[in-house]
Structures are given as structure tokens and as C-alpha cells.
Design goal:
The structure holds 2 protein chains of 2 kinds. Chain A is mostly helical. Chain A contains 3 helices and no strands. Classes of the chains: A mainly alpha, B alpha+beta. The interface between A and B is large, with 44 and 53 residues.
Chain lengths: 72, 472
């Protein structure tokens, strides 16, 4: 099951509710396409996530990698 | 053109400290160069020559009294106009923040000041550091010194143009998705994005807390190492800085060698659709490493497009978060292009953002295991296409502008997600006469290794000594 795709009218509606500036249809179509692509990628990749992965432990991962992997 | 501005940062710093050149002479040389080049390339947003000369006079007085401020005593620099300086207007090249008047110094500027550097002004950039082409509707586009019809790349456009055209001896930029390495590549200079957390972002206008990096842009690798050694290191004001000690980057260059080093060439993604003349320059750079005793090896790549997408998820959501209030109340003060890029983050669910964050640690671990088990440094293009023109990248004019703009950060963006260091080093010119650069990528905190490899390359080549001529 994948996320339901957003359409350019969704983008226009959200933009209207958020800041009230009009969004050209071509730009809304491009935005919707990009956002759908990004959401699909995350959804696909996130299936591999372990249950206990820490969302904000990235800095410590880098430092552990440095210690385990001296450049030369 | 004068001889002082042809000196590297290292050379002019040494010349000032040994009193062969005064800081006033060096600063006046930069002022003259700025006067000649600024109308051609629009690299500066703010510039105060009187203030610059006052700083230089103070540096000379101090030196005459035996007081050396630091390793950059009296050296004129200028920086992207998003680093906060106490009492100095910082525009971030925008209308929204155009009147920002900070009341404190960014940590990196304070460290450079403590090392004796002078600050000549604020450099042009993409509006709010968003945009890989370096375009700016509010302050005018920055133009490439090698050919002003071409883009500098962004977002640190002015830093690239100012250093390449010898207006200053070095500059700081920021890099959220390639914004140091892209203009360094397009302008034919050296630039580094360090490991995530290597350099403090305190007092720097944020784009994305998870992806922003600060780094130097210079003419030589040695100069880059010198500035990096000053600005890098932990900072209690930026809790995401790493506590890893900072190596002696410059000291490590004395015996720099690539003998026995495994230089990895990716078998996919980076070289997909690379322009023929760009490919020639990159292949020639690999020959230089072979000639110095390195082993060039092919490296199979993970799916870089996935990392690029994950990077964009984080970037879009975080920048939308930062601008959310202004987007509601001052939407008309953004250019249409930048507003569209920012608001993309409003449509990404919070769950997807958190998943992209959670995938980051295991992504970089998998990448390092796959790539750096096979090679010591990865060698990629900085830009797979020839540097495009301003018209090529104008979506309102060029039908294929979206495709071209997508290529600008093609080799860069995934590194911001992975948090890995990348060093852009010029390695020739493409068929249109604009610069070509190699990007050297290493494991976390391997900036010292990247500097050694780049320095070894520049000892054998002279691309970094080439200067653009003043356009007519």
C-alpha cells in the first residue's frame, strides 16, 4: 500500500490556506509531482528501518564510523 | 591586475607577517580588484572600503608593535552575506531578512577575527541560500568571472566569483545541498563541505539544521586547509558540532602523498550522462594520481538517487519550518522560485520526515561499508555538465531549465544527507571554456586525507593558478 498521491489542486488549496498567494498550475503540478516522488522514496526505504533506530542519533553514527574506520 | 592579488592566501599571510607586504597594501590591492570586477560579476552585496582600510591600518600598527593576532594577521577576506556580524546588516540576499541587524558574531567569524583576518563585506548569494544556480532577483544575479554570461552556481555565488576573480584571498560559504562545492566547481576554485558537525553554524542563517555546513572557498587546497583549521571544532553554541579534535590540516600537507592510495571511480550515477569534455578533464586528473603512485579502482555505488530524495525530504521540511511564519505573513517578499521551493515542505507528512531522519544513520553506514572498503577516497565530477549560462537556467525562458537545474547538484546533494566530507578541486576546462572540477569524497572526519590528496594533485598541476581575464 502506498500513500495516496496529492494532485496539483491539493497544492493550490494548501497554498491558499497557508499564505493566500496564488500558485500557477504548472508550478503546482511540478510541486505535486516532486512531493509524490519524495514520499514514495521514503515510504519504500523506510520498510528497512529497524524498530529501535534513533531518529536523531546521526552525529554519533558519524563519530563511531570515524573510530572504526581510520582513513589510512 | 596587480601582483599582490595573485598571491595565494598562504603567501599573502606570510608576506604580511614578514613585513614584505603591509595589510594596507594587501587590502588596497583587493579594493582595486573589487572596483574593476564588481561591475562585471556582482559578487558583493555590501562593501565598505574605508572600514576595510581602517581594519588594515590597525593590523599594521599591531604588527609594528610586535603583536601578531594570528595566522591570518591582516589578510582581507569576505563572506557570504548570511554570517552574522555584530552591528552589521546581514541581508541573506533577501527581502524577508534584508534588514537583519545581528547583535553578535557568528562563531566562525569570531574565530577568523581572532586569527587576525579582516572582513571586507558581504558577498552575493542565492536568495536565502536556496538555489543551486546562484540566481538572485533582489540583488541581481552573480556572474561567472570566466564568462559573465554563465552562472557561478550557488548558493555561495559571490564567494565563488570573488575568490576566482582575486577580489579576496578566501571566503566562507555554506553548503546545504552543494552550495559550497557547486560554485567552487563552476568558478574554478577549491571548496570543502566538511563532515556534518565539523564546523559551527552558530550565527549563520539556517536553511536546514540537519544538513547545513559552513566551509572555506579558496584558490588552493593549502589555503582551504588553513581556514578550515581555524573555523573547525566544537562549539557549545551549536550543539550539533562534533567533539572530535581538529587535526593540523596544514601540517599534514608537508608530506602529502597519494602513493598506494586507492582512488575510487564510481561505476554508476555520478558519471551518467557526463559531458565529453568534462569526462576528458576528469580522466586526465585520474592519470595524475596514477602517475603519483595511486591505484585507481572502480567502485560500485549504492542507489544515490534514494539518498538524494531523502536529503530533499529533510531539506524541504526543515526550510519550510524555518520560514513558516514569514511565509504566512510576508509571502510576497519571496521570489516566486524560492517560495515554491520552500513551500514544497508543507506537503510532506511529518511521518515521512522522521523516517528520512531515521534512515540517515544506517544509510551512511551502508555507504561507507560498500564504498570505503574498496577505496580510500571517491573521485567524482563536481558537475557532470558544462557550466550553463544564465539563460539556460531561467525557467521562464529555457524549456529545459528544470533538467539543467537538476544536474547542478547532481553530484553533491546526497553527501549532505550522508554527512560525508567533499572537496572540490579544479582540474581543467570544458569545451565552452568554463572550469571543470573533481570532487573528492572521504569517510567521516577524513578532511585531512582529502586535503592531502588535493594538495598532492595541485603540486603536480597548475589549474589553480589560472586566473580569469577582466571581461570587456
Amino acid at each position: 500500500m502506498t500513500d495516496k498521491k496529492i494532485g496539483h489542486k491539493d497544492v493550490s488549496r494548501l497554498a491558499e490556506s497557508f499564505h493566500g498567494m496564488p500558485v500557477a498550475e504548472s508550478r503546482a503540478v511540478a510541486l505535486a509531482t516532486e512531493v509524490n516522488q519524495l514520499n514514495t522514496t521514503v515510504q519504500t526505504e523506510s520498510r528497512a528501518l529497524a524498530y529501535d533506530v534513533d531518529a536523531f542519533g546521526f552525529s554519533s553514527v558519524l563519530q563511531k564510523l570515524k573510530r572504526s574506520r581510520r582513513p589510512r | 591586475m596587480n601582483n599582490i592579488v595573485e598571491m595565494s592566501l598562504t603567501e599573502v599571510a606570510n608576506a604580511i607577517q614578514t613585513k614584505k607586504v603591509s595589510s594596507v597594501e594587501a587590502t588596497q590591492a583587493c579594493i582595486d580588484q573589487i572596483s574593476a570586477w564588481q561591475p562585471k560579476v556582482n559578487a558583493f552585496i555590501s562593501f565598505d572600503p574605508e572600514d576595510a582600510l581602517d581594519q588594515a591600518k590597525a593590523a599594521d600598527v599591531a604588527l609594528a608593535g610586535g603583536n601578531v593576532w594570528g595566522s591570518l594577521h591582516g589578510v582581507p577576506l569576505a563572506h557570504k552575506d548570511l554570517f552574522y556580524r555584530d552591528g552589521k546588516r546581514t541581508t541573506c540576499a533577501s527581502k524577508v531578512l534584508g534588514d537583519l541587524m545581528p547583535d553578535y558574531d557568528a562563531t566562525v567569524l569570531r574565530r577568523l577575527t581572532d586569527a587576525g583576518a579582516l572582513h571586507l563585506g558581504g558577498l552575493n548569494m542565492s536568495e536565502l541560500a536556496i538555489g543551486a544556480a546562484g540566481r538572485n532577483e533582489h540583488f541581481g544575479h552573480c556572474r561567472n568571472p570566466w564568462d559573465p554570461d554563465h552562472i557561478t552556481g550557488g548558493s555561495s555565488s559571490g564567494s565563488g566569483a570573488a575568490v576566482a576573480s582575486r577580489m579576496v584571498f578566501g571566503a566562507l560559504g555554506t553548503d546545504t545541498g552543494g552550495s559550497i562545492r557547486i560554485p567552487s566547481t563552476m568558478c574554478g576554485i577549491v571548496g570543502i563541505k566538511g563532515t556534518f558537525g565539523r564546523v559551527s553554524r552558530h550565527g549563520v542563517m539556517p536553511v536546514s539544521y540537519s544538513l547545513d555546513n559552513v566551509g572555506p572557498m579558496t584558490r588552493t587546497v593549502e589555503d582551504c586547509a588553513r581556514i578550515m583549521g581555524i573555523v573547525a571544532g566544537s562549539d557549545p553554541n551549536d550543539p550539533l558540532t562534533a567533539i572530535e579534535p581538529v587535526p593540523d590540516y596544514v601540517g599534514g600537507l608537508a608530506n602529502a602523498s597519494v602513493k598506494g592510495l586507492r582512488v575510487g571511480v564510481p561505476t554508476s550515477y555520478f558519471y551518467d550522462d557526463v559531458a565529453p569534455s568534462v569526462r576528458v578533464a576528469l580522466d586526465t586528473s585520474l592519470d595524475v594520481y596514477r602517475g603519483q603512485g595511486a591505484e585507481v579502482v572502480e567502485v560500485s555505488m549504492p542507489d544515490m538517487e534514494v539518498y538524494r530524495d531523502l536529503c530533499n525530504v529533510i531539506l524541504k521540511v526543515e526550510v519550510a519550518n524555518i520560514h513558516a511564519d514569514w511565509l504566512r505573513t510576508r509571502a510576497n517578499e519571496y521570489s516566486n522560485e524560492v517560495r515554491a521551493r520552500i513551500e514544497g515542505g508543507l506537503y510532506i507528512p511529518g511521518v515521512r520526515y522522521l523516517q528520512a531522519q531515521r534512515l540517515r544513520g544506517e544509510s551512511v553506514t551502508a555507504f561507507c561499508n560498500q564504498v570505503f572498503d574498496v577505496c580510500d577516497v571517491l573521485h567524482t565530477p563536481g558537475l557532470p555538465i558544462e557550466v550553463p549560462t544564465l539563460v539556460d537556467t531561467d525557467a521562464a525562458v529555457a524549456g529545459n531549465a528544470l533538467q539543467i537545474n537538476e544536474k547542478l547538484a547532481w553530484c553533491m546533494r546526497a553527501l549532505n544527507y550522508l554527512g560525508l566530507p567533499g572537496l572540490a578541486v579544479p582540474c581543467g576546462f570544458s569545451a565552452n571554456g568554463l572550469p571543470v572540477s573533481q570532487q573528492l569524497i572521504g569517510p567521516p572526519f577524513s578532511e585531512d586525507l582529502l586535503f592531502e590528496v588535493g594538495h598532492a594533485y595541485q603540486r603536480e598541476t597548475d589549474w589553480h593558478t589560472k586566473a580569469p581575464g577582466l571581461p570587456s
